[in-house]
Design a protein that fits this description.
Blueprint: H1 3-15, H2 17-24, H3 29-38, H4 45-58, H5 62-79
Helix pairs in contact: 1-4, 4-5
Length: 83
């Protein structure tokens, strides 16, 4: 697993609407993991948490921090899908 891949996911999800939509089409954690594997974005939840922590540390405004938290929440909501 790779911290760099977690950062890559974070930046793609933050800036690329079509990537966000692709993530949201996954109906289960297994589908999401397969999507990540296909995109060569394998990382652990712990690595993602490190990205969030690092990103929050760099925030200069409340709006910046809110954006980071929204990405964090979106990621964990995607993992909880059970359809």
């Amino acid at each position: 697993m790779s911290l760099n891949k977690a950062f890559e996911f974070y930046n793609l999800f933050r800036t690329n609407i079509s990537f966000q939509k692709e993530c949201c089409t996954c109906n289960s954690k297994d589908e999401l993991n397969a999507f990540f594997e296909n995109k060569h974005l394998l990382f652990s939840d712990e690595e993602f948490d490190e990205v969030i922590s690092s990103s929050l540390f760099k925030c200069q405004t409340e709006d910046d921090a809110l954006e980071v938290r929204q990405i964090e929440q979106a990621y964990y909501l995607l993992l909880k899908r059970k359809m």
